[in-house]
Amino acid sequence: MKITMYEASVPVFSTRLKALSNVLAAAEQNALERKIDPQVFLTARLAPDMFALTRQVQIATDHAKGAPSRLAGREVPKYEDNEASFADLEARIAKTLALLATFSAADIDGSDDKVIELKLGGRETTLAGMQYLLHVAMPNFYFHLTTAYDILRHNGVPLGKATFLGSR
């Protein structure tokens, strides 16, 4: 059996974003329990030259909304990137999940060879749909998703693989 472009994208993005929502909820609860200002977590970064937690979540959702939109030939929705709280990040994830729910297999399947044009590193790039999904969108999505988890774990939030994977 062959995996389709839809199966490799929308359900994966949706499942991982739901898990990210659980990670953020655990972090917010942990901040409350430990009497830590939530801004400490939201502005935390793994290294001085890396983005903070809030930006990691923004970029993860950008890839989750951008990939299916491009593959389906839709305009990529623009978000304001003005989230300043856990509630704001949760709302952004919810908005992205609602968008993902509007895509069907018919919208995305067959986009393997669709020409995707985008800027990468400040330069225009053209990729086939499958190449874009598997070598640009998904790796970037997972990078920022994992970095968000790592920032929180590094700051003492008691997270485990099960929470990251969404199994609890």
Automatic annotation (TrEMBL):
It comes from the Bacteria. Coiled coil: none annotated. InterPro entries: DinB/YfiT-like (IPR034660), DUF1993 (IPR018531). Pfam families: DUF1993. This is DUF1993 family protein.
